[in-house]
Amino acid sequence: MARPKETTWTETPEGEADFLVVGDDAVFKDMMEPVLKEFGVQYEELDELIISLSANSITHLFNVVPQVWNILAEKKLYDEMLSFGKQLGIKPGGACECIAEQLMEDRSMLQRFCEFFAKRLPKQFDPNMGDDVTSEQVSRYVKKFQDKFSKLEEKVNPDAFQKSMDWVNRIHIVFSLISLAISWKFLWDSVWSIHNASKLMEEMRADLGKLREDEITPIFQFLGKVKKEGYLGRHHYEVYCEKIKSAIKTLEGWRKQIASEKERMQSKAVNNSISAVAMTISMFSTFGLNALNPSRALQAIGVLQGGTAALNVGVAVLSMSQYNRLNNLDVELRKEIQRLTQAQKDLATYVGQSVYDWDNAAVVEWVQAVHPATANVFAENNVDGADLLEMDDATMESMGLTLFHRKKLLRKIDELKR
Question: Can you give the pTM of this predicted structure?
């Protein structure tokens, strides 16, 4: 297991964007190894140890709850038998035969005794016992009642009950502290990941701005020039295709890193949400135990669990916020890739095309770019590329163009010819 590492943005010597992880976990390893060695644990096994402790704490939680339930059930049965025994005069040390004779003499009391036995101790009661019950049978049931009461008294008398609850409290506190430590570790990892994601996006946006300034904007400026001139040589086309491919490759590399960060943020959000739910359940369990057997330690643990649950909720919200920010940046990069891809297609339409091959629509588009006020004149006269290159001042004058318009257009046509 390695401590969280700092992620920085850089570029490879070939110009391709990349992420490099700097720093190592040497300090953390040197600090932890001596401690783990005392317990016979290798540093590389730390993750497995944490997972094991987590599993054990969860398993113990499911063991403690039934134990508490059994203790409370036995305490309730003990209190009921104590109250019922006092009503009927059944004492733990009393002679079974005497008590049985008293019950046989009072049939209503005997009926109540049988009903209590059938309801509270059904496993030891014979449902077939009828009105012809004998004194010996009643004596045996009195003996069973006394034995059961004595056993319960040993386990749930005030001192024994307090001792059992104290033991449950101590076990609960130990494993609650373990689960809190695990949750705090997840919180730390998540907060560090959120920090790294923020730093990554800041650096990526700075590099995106530089990429736009140095590569993307010049590409679109060149494309605008080509659209005006209407012609692109093969050499220049290949040069700018390489520039476009390089920019797209850089953007795609960034998108891969963003996808990885998005997956990490989503995972953190889910894990912290689960941890928040688990910690909330633990908090209610802690306060439930505290209600049965008040303890300042339990109160403190419950407060810590509630605070940790709230922190997990907050970190989960922050993780999803970072996920959305990463997603927005990914959309921005995808749009840049789409623009560059379309630019490459647009450049391809001008490669090797001669002005002589232009139709009227192409001529009108070119005139619209260099001198929009006269575009409709060329459209009305159905001027094609060959006509455009052969035009002189007289021809333009016959088309109704003013001297100012003619001079500007003739200068642009000369540029096309060159």
Answer: 0.57
